[in-house]
Amino acid sequence: MKFQATDAHTLAAAYALGALDPGERGAFEDHLRTCEACRQEAAEFEATAARLAAAVSQAPPAAAKAQVMAAIDGVRQLPPRIPTPAPAPALGGVLRRRALPLALAAGVAAAVLGGVAVWQQQNAQDLERQARQAQQQLDAVSAVLAAPDARTVHGRAANGALTTVVTSDRQNAAVFTATNLPAPGAGKTYQLWLDHDGTMRPAGLIDHNGTVVLTGNPAEAGAVGLTLEPAGGSPQPTTTPLLLMALPA
């Protein structure tokens, strides 16, 4: 993209994602020295990108080893036996009797370790699925923020949350970012809406600070709304909007 003084304020997202060429980046950094609004916006985008990137890389849970060791330690051992004096048995009988508890212990250990292995596999699959979802979200957000036609608008919700919406006609998508968003409370969630000529259509959920890609078609909407709804969301708003912000034209 070509950097021009008139579009300097639209490059914060691309700057945060490292999508500017060296000349554009230098010119925009010069602009940042004199523009407080762009400095704050770039910092917010950088923080959001870092949170999304961190979600992609997830190490195995630290509790895995402790749970394995606890499961092994929990296998009950048989109490010692004090045999009554008896004639010395044949060697074959001794081996058979000793083999029985050893086989039983081996079977118990195999069952425990087999269960642990299944748990580890399921846990690994969950982590892999979460990583794929986070990567997909990061890719979708990055595509909008780095789009050459990206446009940005800022707002403040009634509960004090600072909001930013970035839209791209080329991507036919919009990204919503919230900071200082209070916890929704037990059994509640924040729901996003797209206002289509007075009809509010669900556009996704957000229950903490972060960034989400709005669902639906932002090209046909005039505003984005935010309400507090029961967990899982609602088909229509059930509370007064905390935010109703016009989308950038």
Mean pLDDT: 75
Tell me the distance between the termini.
Answer: 20 Å
Q: What assembly state would you assign to the polypeptide chains in this entry?
A: single chain
Mass-distribution shape:
globular
Q: Strand content of the residues, in percent? A: 15-25%
Low-confidence stretches: 1-6, 93-100
H/E series, N to C?
Answer: HHHHHEEEEEEEE
Number of structural units classed as domains: 3
Mind summarizing the main beta sheet? 4 strands, antiparallel
| Count of helical regions | 5
How would you describe this structure to a colleague?
The chain is α+β, with helices and mostly antiparallel strands and 249 residues long. The protein has three domains: 5-56, Arc Repressor Mutant, subunit A, CATH 1.10.10; 63-140; 151-246, no CATH class. Helices cover 41% and strands 21% of the residues. It is built from five helices and eight strands, in the order αααααββββββββ. A four-stranded antiparallel beta sheet has the order 1-2-3-6, covered by helices on one side. It has a four-stranded antiparallel beta sheet with strand order 5-4-7-8, with no helix packed on it. β4 (188-196) and β5 form a beta hairpin. The longest helix has 55 residues, at 91-145. It is globular and about 60 Å long.
Name a few traits of the molecule:
alpha+beta; 3 domains; globular; disordered N terminus; four-stranded antiparallel beta sheet; 249 residues; 8 strands; Arc Repressor Mutant, subunit A
